[in-house]
Amino acid sequence: MLSSSVEISSCAPTKKSHKLYDVVIIGAGMSGVNVGKLLKEKGLTENVLILEANDYIGGRLRSKVLLNGKATIDIGGQWIGPPQPKVLKLVKELGLSTYPQYFEQEKRRSSLVFPSIGGKKHILRYTGSIPSDPKNVTDEVLLDFDTCIRKIERMANTVPVDAPHECDKAEEYDSQTVQTFMDNLFKTEIAKDFFKTFVVTVFACQPYEMSALFMLWYIAVAGGKFENLMNVRDAAQDCKIYRGSQGIVTGVAEKFKLNVLLNHHVVKIKDEGSLMTVTCKNGAVFQSKYVVTTNLPWTHLGIEYDPPLPSARHNFCQRTPMGYAIKCFMLFKEPFWRKKYDSNGFILSLQPEDYITLTYDVGYKDDIICGICGFVYAEKACEFSTLPREKKIDLLLKQYSETLGGTYEEWKSQFVDYIDKDWGMEPYARGSYGAVTAPGTLVKTKLAFREPLYNRKLFIAGTESASRWIGYMEGAIDAAERVVSELTPLFEGQGRTSKL
């Protein structure tokens, strides 16, 4: 909940606002509120307005309260980790507490599902690292996978994080899909299947949909290490925010008393020369010296720009669609899979027929709630989205009992509730976790993903414009810091700061 210190309204002015703002920010997600925070912190201006299309603050960070406020689950982004210092610092500043993602990799068994052979599914249950297995994970497969990952990391570390198109082999990498890249690199099919599953779980799309240069850049901005993206402990999935990650965004809005208007969907941005005019779908009109947009790339195509966007920016937005993930929570009376079946609740499925590709034990603090959090991706998400709730529950009970241990009847007897979030149905997201570029996009459009427009009056924030941890909370903060650094000389040139 937000305190009354946050200036929030959902009322729509019936005519143009008479107030001139220094900065209008479009989007009250992680990046937008951090732009507002930094403008105030640095003493540049307090005369800032944030316009949010949704009826809540948070963007792709969305938390759901359960048990009358005793517990919270994140139906949007949830994880942070040690390689992400900016968001960890912000969490500490806000006085929020974290707790580790339950994994117990060395004590309890993870489950790895291989493609069916002759209609029979093979499941490898193991502790620690993935062991050699004569049926699927042979020594040859492990060597192939490790060798190729090291090659990919070396390639990724040649990609400049601030300008991926300047990589020496940018044209070569950007001219091919990740699928082609994989086919040319891996020698064994199982190693290739492992990497394909990495692509699907990290980008929520298939390898044939995405540029190889974008993938290498994504690894580069995450520190250049494959493990930073895939591992749990000391990596991107290390810990969660107690009471939910949306609390980071609402916490910033509350602490810095940001002026936010909800239900204000921007449909037009006009360069008036010395001023910018922003028009909302509800008829509200605002003027400012500068505009900062945190919109997802594809949403810019639904905004009327006057004059029109430069062709490179427009092309980037056209060729950078969202991935697609559905996040599914199955809640149970107790985490019986831990002791009874020695399972840590982790599933990684290489089986194309499985709806759920990846799971984690909810592992809520003190086990106030118990459950399995699973993800459905890409074309399987398109199928899953159409199913009735009872069918979804039935499919997941069947998959979890087969993979983690036990019988369908046992899992059904322990079942309490099912909650999912279909991000493909969110009108201002239409997918998750983030956007990916098609082949040829980065080389063709160069820095269009983040360059200021309209003579430095329109600035691009949002995690997709970051040069560190694209698609993550860390990236959203990184982009906010860059935009404020771009705005700073403009305000300092005025010789004063503005206040409300």
From TrEMBL:
Domain of life: Eukaryota
Sequence positions that bind substrate: F375
Annotated keywords: FAD, Flavoprotein, Oxidoreductase
Domain annotation Amine oxidase: ranges: 30-486
InterPro entries in UniProt: Amino_oxidase, FAD/NAD-bd_sf, Flavin_amine_oxidase, Flavin_MAO
The keyword Oxidoreductase belongs to this UniProt entry's keyword annotation: yes
Recorded catalytic activity of this chain's protein: a secondary aliphatic amine + O2 + H2O = a primary amine + an aldehyde + H2O2
Annotated positions binding FAD: S31, E52, A53, V266, E464
Molecular functions (GO terms): monoamine oxidase activity
Cofactor: FAD
EC number(s) on file: 1.4.3.-
UniProt similarity note: Belongs to the flavin monoamine oxidase family.
Protein name (database record): Amine oxidase
High-level lineage: Eukaryota, Discoba, Heterolobosea, Tetramitia, Eutetramitia
